[in-house]
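Sanity check

After download, print the first record. It should look like this:
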Amino acid sequence: MRSWLFAPGDSDKKMIKAAVGAADIVIFDLEDAVTEANKPAARTAIHAFLAAKTAAERVRLWVRVNPLDGPHTQADLAAIMAAAPGGIMLPKASGRSDVEALDAMLTKLESLHGIAPGSTPVIALVTETATAMFTTGDYAGAPRLVAMTWGAEDLADSIGAQTNRGPDGEFAFTYQLARSLCLLGAAAAQVLPVETIDTNFRDLDTLKARATQVRREGYRGMLAIHPAQVEVINAAFSPSSDELAEAREIVALFAANPDAGTIGWKGGMLDRPHLSRAQQVLAMAED
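Expected structure tokens:
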């Protein structure tokens, strides 16, 4: 689940384009990309789109519903769950309790529509409000949760900021903090950390640099707003042949020396955390 591509739920053309592309996960949006007036039509369109797909095809077709503190979540889920989406994105999550509330709603609808209980996974957007910033470490054991991501645009709006960028164009401190808290929260919850969007979909060089950097920091995927971003993200979050070769060498070295706590290698020392990281690289390739 390297690339997570949004497509507005009120555009059949964009949903089709996203679904046939290379994104690992496609997220049909009922929230920010759809106006209040268009939400009922978007629910109908998403249901019809999902219902026309096989169960295997729906696994990668997720839906972002509206936040729990608004008036639309129940209607969103009632409309789409009959078609068994691959998963749900919960925006503006304020903490573990929101995921638990969503779990209860999904469980009822799964039972109603003959879907295996608990089988609909969830990714939570965990930094979109000031309050949510203080609960990013509370998600361990949350039902259905498989990934966490963060948002800079809504967070800026929440705190009344004029911009979320510094003079150099990089995220300002508060938003870098949000990124770090999401990463740490996901690690604590043992779920996938997913980087937020890059709004400039034409600047693929900057996207590549950012995706490469956040992967080095621990992120395992990234949100996308345009199909052109998908291939760049997929490449950035896939281990290179050199990385795989090095990881195999380290794993083999420790396998040949099972009682060693540290091993000399290329003029330096390796210890057990190096082995763990090498194993994680190999696991990414297998996924």
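If your output differs, re-run the checksum step. Summary of this record's structure: The chain has a mean pLDDT of 94.
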